[in-house]
Design a protein that fits this description.
The chain has 123 residues and is mainly alpha-helical. It has four helices and no strands. It folds into two domains: 42 residues, no CATH class; 66 residues. The mean pLDDT is 79.
């Protein structure tokens, strides 16, 4: 943490000598890059874990349909549009719940298989 503070103060000291006529966007970019470089140098780079996608084209279709029906319900508030929106919400929730259950079942099967062959570290 102390290393980061030293690096960032050194970089800001260098930024103080910037030309007053330099535009604000350029100054902001310099500050932002200085912070990123200092953090990366002192704290290291953390790789984000890649998750397997749980959604498919049908999930995207449900999301689009739900969005369209919600907009329609706001634009034309009547009972039929509200019923349609509720039906799409129910169908979407059911589909997402089933996709999540399928995903969890696959993960459980993977864990069982790996535990049977004593390969715990791979999952």
């Amino acid at each position: 943490m102390k290393e980061y503070q030293i690096k960032i103060s050194n970089r800001f000291a260098a930024l103080e000598s910037l030309n007053d006529r330099q535009d604000t966007n350029r100054a902001w970019e310099n500050i932002k890059e200085s912070i990123k470089i200092s953090a990366k140098g002192s704290l290291g780079l953390h790789e984000m874990k890649q998750h397997k996608p749980r959604s498919d084209e049908e999930c995207l279709h449900f999301l689009d349909q739900r969005k369209r029906d919600k907009i329609q319900s706001f634009q034309d508030p009547n009972q039929s549009s509200a019923d349609k929106l509720n039906n799409v919400r129910r169908e979407a929730s059911r589909h997402f719940r089933n996709k999540n259950e399928e995903y969890l079942k696959v993960k459980i099967d993977e864990l069982e298989t790996n535990s049977e062959i004593k390969n715990i570290l791979e999952t």
